[in-house]
């Protein structure tokens, strides 16, 4: 069987480089299969995160031929055959080792976001009645598998390193899910503006393009959130009344 | 002694899937300080992969449903080897546990009048599975995670426990290493909850992830706990079979719940050929009746594709063995055919089964709205687990040690019904957390023995100190073990093969005790696999031993040499425990008599 060359980044926070491996690519191979083969046969200590191997857990994020992808959902035969395939860790996050990066910042930011605050149940049985139509909007955001590929690609984080002022697309998707939950009573507008920095997003839509769950991050989550910020921050009457959500 | 950090909590929970998260939330609510430990990042546990739904008799989709029907279905599915008390608690409490998720932000699919919708699943008499498309597990784990992070729980991510620490017959903590840097952590706790999930990595073809190395089962066993029902390993009838790189990945039962049918290479719906006696009255007589059931006709009975998993898996194996399989050694699962019956079938399929649509499209190049899928059995779920007191989930032999979720035993008996795991996690996760907090409050502080910690350290470091050779290294040994279990202790079992499996395991154990892993302590999968391997070996031995002992076929346990179910074998569970000499011991534990009112329910439900 013909071998395919993979160039995998090996290293840690002190630096590293691409190393070349030859892989027997079997039928239907995804990039993660190739990495596993290298790990099993050539480099037992090659560090990589994965769990489901079916695009469901968001663990195996990496940059394949330079673009942010889930390794388990990237078919090798969909990649160009005339040059080696490069596999590198997400560059926006600090390196731990090889393909593993330190994504703990995302978990820290999420904790600071105002939590879900349900209204009083509206049905006699102590539950809520919600229309399928109304839950579908936030359900799109709840598909998020926290792969952080959108965070990886967003230039505000990747190039400008504004981690202290800007929460990134994943967190806006999370806030949108809360804000659009039919029974939530919270209001995260001030937080969006002052702490999460939604204003820094200049709608390049790169995040939407890489989302493996096909969440329309920019149009469906970020833009409506920006609109809320504008409406509530600059509408004097709304501000006076401390208005909540529509 | 090499360095370690000591972390102290009232309760530590090992595992952050549905069961662990729910336990941690309950323990925190009970006033305990809680530490939550997991091998992966938060939110990535296996629960995230669950697709079809969570079973609870909410009676939203069919008002005839109630806890009694759910109880009877669960017992029938488990061939009456279940702990009846757990089955009762589960059926009664599941509805509240599921509703609670909504108050924490979950958004499940709705009925036309705005309540949670429920879908059909194998072995459930009425549509009972609350769901979100086919990503119910994601909804559940994210809800628990996003609620849990505000409960003052200390989360230790990417930390693997390798040993439980004991003081006499009480569990007092756990020894662990962090995956990132390989540093040791010693958790000191008044109560410990195991919620480590299953054992799938013992087999070659499995729907399970790398995490499923039976850690909780093995940790508990070595700490003196009993394991129950270890012969019952569920093979899900529908895993992907092609291409080889995706072999084993699950195809949710939801496909059949939505009307998907199984066909052999001759185009025949072979599931109609053989309906087991326990289910004859409940199964559709014709394809036409089966379809009416799918679309909610209350007079219709369920199609035979929705019989229990053990039965469907065996029928598929039979078709393949007799030469009527699909090109790659499975059978055909067809959902596209429903276009004969409904308008916009393609849109409907994509809406109801979005991840299946993507999974096949992207990984196999198959459009399930147009073509049938190829499917075959895949190892999926472990019914056996740590033997616990039904109400508290505390181990029957180790005080202060609790177990919930897939690593706990008892609820499912010889076969689990789909959807009954997610509800199990919620019901018994909560109970375990609650009782662990109570236990911690009522019992004195613990002391840790230095010797145990020292031993745990040297055991953990051993593979790094030996010479590494990939040909006899951890990945190689794991592969050989998987193959052994798949071939000799898999879906159809036989005395001689099970004996060969047990002998093979002993040989692998000997090799594992001298195996080396190369590299350093920093994020080193070779080393991690080497340590997990010991757990896999322990539970593989338990499976093969219990399977050899049970000389009949029942539920998920199918013996080629004893094909019939035998009433005499339906009166006890197998219980496994580590003997004084360190060898594995197995005994028969008679079933507790079922309370009279519950017996009446079983009789009534037929
Ligand atoms: C593809 C798939 C689909 C499924 N669909 C359904 C469904 O529709 N309905 C249903 O009811 N069931 C379903 N199941 C079964 C169900 O998902 C699992 O049984 C259930 O999620 C197990 O949950 P758990 O909390 O017990 O364990 P898990 O969610 O697996 O969590 C285990 C946790 O333990 C941790 N852990 C393990 N070992 C250690 C250790 N040594 N040290 C520290 N931490 C450790 C892991 O890191 C993880 O956090 C499905 C299973 C699969 C594989
Ligand atoms: S659209 Fe906004 S959030 Fe998304 S990548 Fe561009 S700047 Fe970042
Ligand atoms: S929004 Fe999409 S890209 Fe971003 S973390 Fe979620 S799934 Fe990944
Ligand atoms: S391994 Fe889960 S998304 Fe790739």
Nutshell version of this structure?
The complex is a heterodimer of chains A (246) and B (606). Chain A has 246 residues and is α+β, with helices and mostly antiparallel strands.
Indicate the topology.
The complex is a heterodimer of chains A (246) and B (606).
Chain A: E1 3-12, E2 15-24, H1 31-41, E3 61-64, E4 67-70, E5 85-88, E6 95-97, E7 100-101, H2 104-112, H3 132-142, H4 149-153, H5 155-158, H6 169-179, H7 189-194, H8 206-210, H9 217-234, H10 236-241
Parallel strand pairs in A: 1-5
Antiparallel strand pairs in A: 1-2, 3-4, 3-5, 6-7
Chain B: E1 4-14, H1 18-29, E2 34-37, E3 54-55, H2 67-77, H3 84-103, E4 118-119, E5 129-130, H4 136-148, E6 154-156, E7 159-167, E8 170-178, E9 184-194, H5 215-222, E10 227-228, E11 233-240, H6 254-257, E12 261-263, H7 287-294, H8 309-321, E13 331-334, H9 345-352, H10 354-364, E14 373-382, E15 385-386, E16 401-403, H11 420-442, H12 450-465, H13 474-488, H14 495-512, H15 525-549, E17 572-578, E18 584-590, H16 596-605
Parallel strand pairs in B: 1-2, 1-9, 2-6, 9-16
Antiparallel strand pairs in B: 3-5, 4-5, 7-8, 8-9, 10-15, 10-17, 11-14, 12-13, 13-14, 17-18
Bound molecules: flavin-adenine dinucleotide, iron/sulfur cluster (2 copies) and FE2/S2 (inorganic) cluster.
Folded structure, characterized:
The complex is a heterodimer of chains A (246) and B (606). Chain A has helices at 31-41, 104-112, 132-142, 149-153, 155-158, 169-179, 189-194, 206-210, 217-234, 236-241; strands at residues 3-12, 15-24, 61-64, 67-70, 85-88, 95-97, 100-101. A 5-stranded mixed beta sheet of chain A has the order 2-1-5-3-4. A two-stranded antiparallel sheet of chain A has the order 6-7. In chain A, β1 and β2 (15-24) form a beta hairpin. The mean pLDDT of chain A is 93. With 246 residues, chain A is an alpha+beta fold. Chain A has 2 domains: 2-101, Roll (Ubiquitin-like (UB roll)), CATH 3.10.20.30; 104-241, Orthogonal Bundle (Fumarate Reductase Iron-sulfur Protein, Chain B, domain 2). With 606 residues, chain B is an alpha+beta fold. Chain B has 3 domains: 4-232 and 385-450, FAD/NAD(P)-binding domain (3-Layer(bba) Sandwich), CATH 3.50.50; 245-379, Succinate dehydrogenase/fumarate reductase flavoprotein, catalytic domain (Flavocytochrome C3, Chain A, domain 1, Alpha-Beta Complex); 462-563, Methane Monooxygenase Hydroxylase, Chain G, domain 1 (Up-down Bundle), CATH 1.20.58.100. In chain B, α3 crosses α11 (420-442) and α5 (215-222) crosses α15 (525-549). Classes of the chains: A alpha+beta (246), B alpha+beta (606). Chains A and B meet through α1, α2 and α3 of A and α3, α4, α10, α13 and α15 of B. The structure holds flavin-adenine dinucleotide (FAD), iron/sulfur cluster (SF4) (2 copies) and FE2/S2 (inorganic) cluster. One iron/sulfur cluster is lined by residues 153-154, 156, 169, 201-207, 218, 222 of chain A.
């Amino acid at each position: 069987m013909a071998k395919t060359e993979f160039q995998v980044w090996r290293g840690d926070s002190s630096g590293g480089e691409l190393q070349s491996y030859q892989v027997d690519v079997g039928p239907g191979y995804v990039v993660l299969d190739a990495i596993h083969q290298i790990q099993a046969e050539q480099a037992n200590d090659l560090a990589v995160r994965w769990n489901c191997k079916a695009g469901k857990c968001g663990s195996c994020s990496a940059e394949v031929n330079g673009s942010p992808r889930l390794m388990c959902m990237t078919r090798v035969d969909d990649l160009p055959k005339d040059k080696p395939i490069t596999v590198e860790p997400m560059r926006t996050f600090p390196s731990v080792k090889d393909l593993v990066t330190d994504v703990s910042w995302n978990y820290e930011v999420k904790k600071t976001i105002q939590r879900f605050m349900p209204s009083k149940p509206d049905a006699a049985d102590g539950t809520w009645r919600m229309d399928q139509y109304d839950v579908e909007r936030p359900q799109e955001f709840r598909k998020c598998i926290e792969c952080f590929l959108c965070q990886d690609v967003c230039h505000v984080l990747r190039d400008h390193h504004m981690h202290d002022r800007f929460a990134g697309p994943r967190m806006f998707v999370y806030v949108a899910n809360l804000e659009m939950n039919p029974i939530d009573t919270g209001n995260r507008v001030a937080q969006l503006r002052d702490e999460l920095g939604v204003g820094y997003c200049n709608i390049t839509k790169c995040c939407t393009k890489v989302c493996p769950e096909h969440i329309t991050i920019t149009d469906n989550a970020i833009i409506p959130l920006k609109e809320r910020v504008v409406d509530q921050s600059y509408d004097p009457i709304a501000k006076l009344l401390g208005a909540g959500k529509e | 002694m090499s360095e370690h950090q000591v972390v102290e909590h009232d309760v530590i929970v090992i595992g952050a899937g549905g069961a662990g998260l729910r336990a941690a939330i309950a323990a925190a609510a009970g006033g305990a300080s809680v530490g939550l430990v997991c091998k992966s990042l938060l939110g990535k546990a296996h629960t995230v992969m669950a697709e079809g739904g969570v079973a609870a008799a909410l009676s939203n989709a069919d008002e005839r449903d109630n806890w009694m029907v759910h109880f009877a279905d669960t017992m029938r599915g488990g061939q009456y080897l279940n702990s009846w008390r757990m089955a009762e608690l589960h059926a009664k409490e599941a509805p509240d546990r599921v509703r609670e998720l909504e108050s924490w932000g979950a958004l499940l699919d709705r009925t036309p009048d705005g309540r949670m919708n429920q879908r059909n699943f194998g072995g459930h008499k009425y549509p009972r599975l609350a769901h979100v498309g086919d990503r119910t597990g994601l909804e559940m784990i994210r809800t628990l995670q996003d609620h849990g992070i505000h409960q003052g729980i200390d989360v230790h991510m990417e930390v693997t426990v390798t040993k439980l620490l004991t003081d006499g017959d009480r569990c007092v903590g756990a020894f662990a290493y962090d995956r990132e840097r390989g540093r040791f952590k010693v958790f000191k706790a008044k109560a410990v909850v195991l919620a480590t999930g299953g054992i799938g990595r013992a087999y070659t073809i499995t729907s399970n992830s790398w995490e499923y190395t039976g850690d909780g089962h093995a940790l508990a066993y070595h700490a003196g706990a009993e394991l129950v029902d270890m012969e019952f390993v569920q093979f899900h009838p529908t895993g992907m079979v092609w291409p080889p790189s995706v072999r084993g990945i699950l195809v949710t039962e939801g496909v059949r719940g939505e009307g998907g049918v199984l066909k052999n290479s001759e185009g025949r719906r072979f599931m109609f050929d053989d309906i087991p006696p326990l289910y004859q009255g409940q199964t559709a007589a014709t394809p036409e009746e089966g379809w009416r059931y799918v679309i909610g006709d209350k007079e219709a009975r369920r199609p035979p594709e929705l019989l229990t998993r053990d039965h469907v898996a065996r029928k598929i194996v039979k078709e393949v063995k007799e030469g009527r399989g699909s090109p790659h050694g499975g059978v055909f699962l067809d959902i596209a055919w429903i276009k004969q019956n409904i308008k916009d079938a393609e849109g409907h399929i994509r809406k109801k089964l979005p991840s299946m649509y993507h999974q096949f499209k992207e990984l196999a190049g198959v459009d399930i709205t147009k073509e049938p899928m190829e499917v075959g059995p895949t190892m999926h779920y472990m019914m056996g687990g740590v033997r616990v007191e039904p109400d508290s989930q505390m181990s029957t032999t180790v005080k202060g040690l609790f177990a919930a979720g897939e690593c706990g035993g008892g609820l499912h008996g010889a076969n689990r019904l789909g959807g009954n795991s997610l509800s199990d996690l919620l019901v018994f996760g909560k109970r375990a957390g609650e009782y662990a907090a109570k236990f911690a409050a009522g019992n004195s502080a613990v002391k840790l023995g230095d010797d145990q910690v020292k031993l745990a350290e040297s055991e953990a470091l051993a593979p790094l100190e030996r010479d590494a050779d990939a040909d006899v290294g951890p990945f190689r040994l794991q592969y050989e073990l998987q193959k052994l279990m798949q071939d000799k202790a898999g879906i159809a079992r036989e005395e001689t093969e099970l004996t060969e499996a047990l002998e093979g395991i002993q040989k692998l154990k000997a090799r594992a005790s001298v195996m080396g892993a190369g590299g350093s302590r920093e994020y080193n999968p070779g080393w991690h696999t080497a340590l997990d391997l010991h757990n896999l070996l322990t539970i593989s031995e338990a499976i093969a031993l219990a399977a050899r002992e049970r000389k009949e076929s029942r539920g998920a346990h199918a013996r080629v040499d004893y094909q019939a179910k035998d009433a005499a074998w339906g009166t006890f569970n197998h219980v496994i425990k580590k003997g004084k000499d360190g060898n594995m011991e197995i005994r028969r534990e008679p079933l507790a008599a079922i309370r009279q009112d519950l017996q009446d329910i079983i009789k009534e439900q037929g």
